[in-house]
Amino acid sequence: MAGSNNIILIGFMGVGKGSVAREVIKNSNYIAIDTDDLIESMENRRVKDIFDDEGEKYFRALEKEISSWLEKSVKNTLISTGGGFYKVKNLKKIGKIVFLDSPFEKIIKRIKSHPNSSKKLKKRPLLSDLKKAQELYDERRPEYLTLADVVIDVTDKSALECAKELLKKVK
Ligand code: S3P
């Protein structure tokens, strides 16, 4: 919502929402929060453990809870989100929506080229089967595009370049 001055970063797992958020806060007055971090502190356990112990439905209910809190209580903040958070009903009311876009193969290549790649893959239960992950990507991408106020193609760009583009486009 215009009054809240929040920016919400949406996009597929591994596209670089966290890295872009870190560069935005270094280069602006925004403070940042991350919906997965909020959920992990609420639950005092990792997202992967929440999926393993309680299942995806339970995790989605936590995302919904967080979304109400964000709408009511958070202002002037860059909010990075888990890849499925965009499904909450009040997303548009939380802030300006920025979609980080990249082809599926590039996202997987990006994760695999990371020094901590096996950790990055392990902590994301929905990436354990790449065929299913590709299907999820194909299903979600048009939905991300429909919701977005701003789209940033992050392919082959550094996090800093993306952050600068974001700050220019959300002005
Ligand atoms: C999910 C993405 C993850 C995390 C959870 C579910 C999804 O966050 O919220 O594993 O549904 O795409 P990242 O996008 O930060 O990996």
Describe the protein's architecture and organization.
- Helix 1 (17-26) crosses helix 9 (159-170), helix 2 crosses helix 4 and helix 3 (47-54) packs across helix 4.
- The chain contains nine helices and five strands.
- Strands 2-3-1-4-5 form a five-stranded parallel beta sheet, sandwiched between helices.
- The protein starts with 6 loop residues before the first strand and ends with a helix.
- It is α/β, with parallel strands linked by helices.
- It has a single domain, classed as P-loop containing nucleotide triphosphate hydrolases (Rossmann fold), CATH 3.40.50.300.
- The relative contact order is 0.22.
- It has helices at 17-26, 35-43, 47-54, 56-73, 91-94, 104-112, 117-122, 130-147, 159-170, and strands spanning 7-10, 31-34, 77-80, 96-101, 150-153.
Distance between the termini: 14 Å
The strands making up the biggest β-sheet line up spatially as 2-3-1-4-5
Q: Please count the helical segments.
A: 9
Taking Cα atoms only, what radius of gyration do you get, to the nearest Å? Answer: 15 Å
Major sheet size, sense and barrel closure: 5 strands, parallel
Q: Number of DSSP strands? A: 5
Structural class, from helix and strand content? alpha/beta
Order of helices and strands: EHEHHHEHEHHHEH
* CATH level-two architecture: 3-Layer(aba) Sandwich
What's the helical proportion of residues?
40-55%
Mean pLDDT: 95
The top-level CATH class is: Alpha Beta
Give the percentage of residues in beta strands.
5-15%
List the helices and strands and how they pair.
Elements: E1 7-10, H1 17-26, E2 31-34, H2 35-43, H3 47-54, H4 56-73, E3 77-80, H5 91-94, E4 96-101, H6 104-112, H7 117-122, H8 130-147, E5 150-153, H9 159-170
Parallel strand pairs: 1-3, 1-4, 2-3, 4-5
Helix pairs in contact: 1-9, 2-4, 3-4
